[in-house]
Amino acid sequence: MRCPKCGMMYVPEYFEDVREHRIFHGKVVNGFYARKIKSDKIIWEKGNYRITVVNYFSPIAQKRRAQEAGILAHRDTPFDFAPYHSKEDLDRRNVHLFLLSRKIRIIGFLILEKRDYIQKFTWKEYENAGGKKLSKGEVIWSIGLVWIHRKYRKRGLGSQFIQAVASYFNIEAQSIGWHTPFTGDGKKLAKSLCPKSFYVAK
User: Fold this and answer.
1) Which of 11, 28, 36, 124 is deepest in the core (most CB within 10 A)?
2) pTM higher than 0.85, yes or no?
3) DSSP-assigned beta bridge partners for residue 33
4) How confident is the model at residue 25 (pLDDT cuts 50, 70, 90)?
């Protein structure tokens, strides 16, 4: 049978199938299970919510958490490839992963990376730009992907998430670029933070 909520196919008569479904279902419906551990690098905390940062130099346990969170986020996007792998090499993008947790569940995922093909657009200009080629310029941080679990959307968490990450780098959220194309929710989030103009950075 197929679970109507998480989409997993399993056989209810088999214990191992039921067990695997329970784990997968909890992850999809409630967020990736992740208790606090000593290697967490917490950059922001408020009530039951916290944000941790992961990069190339982080312990492998943190990288694997980021990879699993990225796989979960990928389920909600139309993109072809998972956004992050725990064994990625260090390169000029200097990829940073940010994980938003509530209690013992990761419910948000954000990739920030350095990009140098940049163009500033008003929203009207962006809609009319088509496949306009970007110009090479000064390197800026760019959002490769931002995701909030469906259960926690429409609470303002996406904008708070990005603003907290911007504060970590001591920059304004509006100075961060966006790696387009947008999803529908991503575009709404970008407009809420950058209502007049924004940077595309790839």
Assistant:
1) 28
2) yes
3) 105
4) low
